[in-house]
Amino acid sequence: MGCICSRETVQINSRKYYVRERLGEGGFSTVDLVEDAHSHKIYAVKKIICHGEADQKVAMKEVEYYGLLKHPNVIECFDSALKAGPNPFLNSTSEVMIVLPYYKSGTLASELERRSVRREYMSSAEILSMFLQICEGVKAFHEAKPEPLSHRDLKTANILISGDRSPIIMDLGSVAVARVKVCGSSEAQQLQDLASERCSMSYRAPELFNVESYCMIDERTDIWSLGCVLYAMCYFKSPFDAVYERGDSVALAAISGNITFPESSPYNSEIHELILYMLKANPMERPYIYSVIEKTHDVISTIEVKA
């Protein structure tokens, strides 16, 4: 048993935390499970490593978005700090640290993985109840002031499950202003590169794979991702995961908009129609979040009547 004073500690503003374990690691950040040295409460600390001013600006923007988005289905931020100055061990110029709640149930992705092994499907009622809450969280992004925001990386791995089984949208690192007018090939390429860096392939909207030189991108990129999330809640994986695993082109599969459902599906046609309603390859044919919520309520009512 090691002495408590030998534990790795993190200082964020006036509070000290003991690092208990590493929860996750990405290309831009790490997440540690920590214990408040004073209250002994457990938190997750996200540490974003910045390699220059541009990185730092993006990280601080993420902190700003936590302040803007106050919703029960969007993760909250308890505290944050910018640690300026170079760190030769991390090859960084600064670090941004964000104190977040810790959910011991983990992510929707990890639950679906466990269920997949046992082929243990969720009931239609549970799926739709959870999905409706995810939609309400997404609506908070799309209604943000002064201008609508898009999450841009909605996927089952970015949805946590709270103690009462509520879904909590996390990871605001990919959040961006929703409505982007693209004027010219260099702007299109810039947005395409950003999407390939920050938006997971199996959940990425078709218009972000091949951004046209003159177009309008809006919050309906998230609606496509929501369609993929609902499909995964039913069948454990996004409709494009199998394409990715085979090494085939996810971009071509998404642009074709050809979605198939397992023959032995335990779900009725209304749920399939709701998924297809969101997975329109042409973004102009895709609904806004309000229509998705309305249609989800309709499907819930239909299922209740049939039951």
Supply the key terms.
Transferase(Phosphotransferase), domain 1, alpha+beta, globular, 2 domains, Phosphorylase Kinase, domain 1, two-stranded antiparallel sheet, 10 helices, 307 residues, single chain, six-stranded antiparallel β-sheet
Compact overview of the structure:
The chain has helices at residues 53-68, 108-118, 124-142, 185-198, 206-209, 220-235, 241-246, 250-256, 269-278, 289-306, and strands at 9-12, 15-25, 29-36, 42-50, 79-87, 92-101, 149-150, 159-161, 167-169, 176-177, 180-183, 214-217. The chain has 307 residues and is α+β, with helices and mostly antiparallel strands. InterPro entries: Kinase-like_dom_sf, Prot_kinase_dom, Ser/Thr-specific_kinases, Ser/Thr_kinase_AS.
Explain what this protein looks like in three dimensions.
Helix content is 39%, strand content 22%. The protein has 307 residues and is an alpha+beta fold. It folds into two domains: 7-101, 2-Layer Sandwich (Phosphorylase Kinase, domain 1), CATH 3.30.200; 108-306, Transferase(Phosphotransferase), domain 1. Strands 1-2-3-4-6-5 form a six-stranded antiparallel β-sheet. Strand 8 (159-161) and strand 9 (167-169) form a beta hairpin. It is globular and about 55 Å long. It has helices at residues 53-68, 108-118, 124-142, 185-198, 206-209, 220-235, 241-246, 250-256, 269-278, 289-306, and strands spanning 9-12, 15-25, 29-36, 42-50, 79-87, 92-101, 149-150, 159-161, 167-169, 176-177, 180-183, 214-217. Helix 6 packs antiparallel against helix 9.
